[in-house]
Write a structure and sequence with these properties.
Elements lengths: L1 E5 L3 H13 L3 E5 L2 H10 L4 E4 L8 H10 L6 E5 L4 H9 L4 E4 L4 H13 L8 E4 L2 E4 L4 E4 L2 E3 L3 H12 L7 H8 L8 H16 L6 E6 L5 E4 L16 E5 L2 E10 L11 E8 H54 L13 H56 L2 H31 L8 E4 H15 L5 E6 L3 E4 L1 H17 L6 E8 L3 E7 L7 H4 L21 H11 L3 E7 L3 E9 L4
Parallel strand pairs: 1-2, 1-3, 3-4, 4-5, 16-18
Antiparallel strand pairs: 6-7, 7-8, 8-9, 10-11, 10-14, 12-13, 13-14, 15-17, 18-19, 19-21, 20-21
Helix pairs in contact: 2-3, 6-8, 10-11, 11-15, 12-13, 13-15
Length: about 575
């Protein structure tokens, strides 16, 4: 059987693929949602194992696209999102199964076998029959946006007919499927309920729709047809116009079968007819009503907008600016203020301030949690790192290449975890109020030159470095400035194209000192720019690159620690410029 594994963590992707190959599966692998859609379009798979948090197109959207294209390949979600609502959302979207990370291979393989045994089983949740929509999740029917009030029995009959659309069902089949076997129900009762349904679905519409069944010989069997209508109506795929008794009708015909059996002559014809004059009359009425409503609504909104601008827009704009400033700076200590006459705006302001308090408390809890966890993780990570070194020595001595590959995976992940812990610890220190850090007179020129010399030496890309450095002495903690320069320069290298240029400058004016790093890389969109200083934020386009999404957040925290900020100028496709600014007198 052919399987597709969609997982953006390459080490985990490789491990899963290796295990499936050992189990006898034919496996393809990809690392983002768009690639998964391309693979599925080109190849027929027996099953898909997919993460939700993948780049470009997330797993939930991939699944929706697959199902929208009527592709019924079974999908097993294997993800870290383990909340109950996440599981329910994934299964409702059409997933065959859902597992959370970390997982055990025996259970994973067992679930995979069950999923493959039941492949092809798909449940319809919503059925559309023209303008009539039957929602089987909520047990309701809607026509042209209008809810139809149905009894339990009426809805059950309608759902059964919708499930068997384009098939002629008998009264006995309806009775057998809707009523209990012990109920004494004759065919007349079924007719009465069908009449109820027709009345509720059709009678409130001006145009009368005739639906009837004819035999292969043209004889009327059942339904309702216009007066004077007779003769055979052959099957045709498009809507046609016929006339009799001085009236014209639109007619649509479809072939039908009795039940699910194939008969020797199965050319029974289902006909649907509606008078042309009714359609045109309804169109004219709808046209006049639509433009009248549009005119009235437009006038109302013009008057409403004028009044709203004078009475509400100005204070709302001020509140919006304050909220955006707090959101961009992630600083929720500044309270919003409103002194106007509107109680509603005062309530909004108070609610936002209460929300600010809760968010600030959550930030403080998160910072405390990060600090505690980082300290506690240092020891086990050290043990893992030491064990990896010892295991590598043994594997090299035994010339065990398979073991060396496994150890390399553990070493990469351990190194990443060590870096993450150190960054979290550094950020937890900066988050503490009134923290005292040692300071000294630091020449920014010396720091920049030292960091950039190392970066140029280890850089694997063909990148040209340009410098415009002015001696700039400021009283700061040297380690923090090294972190700032290292993060900005490493990001510039990471996102620069081959043959590009990285320009680094430093200097000062009468009020501020600055360090600026400019690259000619991919640039940052406006949406991403609003979030790049959030902890752990990584855009979909860079999820496969190294890092944890903490570097820029750390730079901003250091700038704020000294009363400064970080400015970003960027254009997609042309590169980015980050400027770290702190006051000359930051004491």
């Amino acid at each position: 059987m052919r399987m597709l594994v969609v997982e953006d963590e390459k080490d985990l992707n490789s491990v899963i693929c290796s295990k499936l190959v050992k189990e006898g599966y034919n496996v393809d692998a990809c690392y983002d949602g768009q690639a998964a859609l391309d693979f599925i379009e080109m190849t027929e798979y027996d099953g898909v194992i997919m993460d939700i948090m993948i780049p470009h197109v997330n797993g939930m959207e991939v699944l929706k696209t697959i199902r929208a294209n009527n592709q019924q390949v079974p999908v097993l979600f294997l993800t870290a999102k383990g909340e109950t609502q996440d599981i329910v959302r994934g299964l409702d979207a059409g997933a065959s199964d859902y597992m959370t990370k970390p997982f055990e291979f025996p259970e994973f393989l067992a679930r995979l076998r069950v999923m493959l045994r039941t492949q092809g089983v798909v449940n319809e949740n919503v059925i559309a029959c023209g303008s009539l929509v039957v929602d089987m999740n909520n047990h309701k029917a809607v026509r042209d946006g209008r809810n139809i009030d149905l009894t339990v029995r009426e809805y059950a009959i309608l759902e059964y007919l919708a499930r068997n659309r384009n098939i002629v069902v008998t009264r006995e089949q309806i009775r057998a499927n809707i009523w209990n076997i012990d109920d004494d129900v004759n065919s007349n009762v079924v007719d009465v309920y069908i009449r109820y349904l027709r009345r509720k679905i059709d009678d409130k519409y001006d145009d009368k729709i005739y639906v009837f069944l004819k035999s292969p010989d043209g004889d009327f069997i059942d339904g309702e047809m216009p007066d004077g209508c007779s003769g055979k109506f052959p099957y045709q795929s498009d809507i046609d116009v016929i006339g009799f008794n001085g009236a014209k009708y639109y007619i649509l015909t479809r072939k039908a079968k009795v039940g699910l059996k194939t008969l020797e002559n199965d050319n029974f014809v289902i006909c649907a007819m509606v008078a042309v004059k009714d359609i045109k009359a309804n169109y004219k009425v709808l046209w006049y009503r639509t433009y009248t409503v549009i005119g009235v609504v437009a006038l109302f909104f013009i008057l409403f907008a004028i009044g709203l601008k004078r009475l509400v827009a100005v204070p709302m704009k001020e509140l919006n600016v304050a909220i955006n400033r707090s959101g961009q700076n992630l600083d929720f200590t500044e309270k919003l203020r409103y002194d106007g006459p509107f109680l509603e705006l005062d309530m909004i302001t108070e609610s936002n301030n209460n929300l600010y308090d809760r968010v600030q408390r959550e930030f403080e809890r998160q910072e405390e949690f990060n600090a505690n966890v980082s300290h506690e993780l240092r020891t086990p990570v050290a043990v893992m790192h030491a064990q990896c070194q010892l295991s590598r020595e043994i594997a090299e001595k035994n010339n065990d290449h398979e073991m060396l590959e496994s150890i390399a995976v553990f070493e990469r992940q351990t190194t990443k975890m060590k870096g993450l812990i150190e960054q979290l610890l550094q950020m937890s220190i900066l988050d503490k109020n009134n923290v005292n850090l040692s300071v000294e007179d630091v020449d920014l020129l010396d720091v920049v030159e030292s960091v950039c010399d190392d970066a140029e030496y280890i850089c694997k890309k063909n990148i040209q470095f340009c410098y415009n450095l002015v001696p700039t002495v400021v009283k700061v903690n040297m380690n923090l400035i090294v972190i700032v320069v290292s993060n900005l320069v490493s990001n510039a290298i990471k996102y620069s194209n081959e043959g590009g240029t990285v320009e680094v400058t430093c200097g000062s004016d009468s009020e501020n000192c600055y360090i600026s790093v400019r690259d000619e890389g991919r640039g940052i969109s406006k949406e991403q720019k609003n979030r790049i200083f959030e902890s752990f934020y990584r855009a979909d386009t860079v999820r496969n690159t190294e890092g944890f999404g903490l570097g820029l957040s750390q730079v901003m925290k250091i700038a704020k620690h000294y009363g400064g900020t970080v400015q970003v100028d960027s254009e997609v496709g042309k590169g980015s410029k980050f400027t770290f600014i702190i006051p000359v007198d930051n004491g």
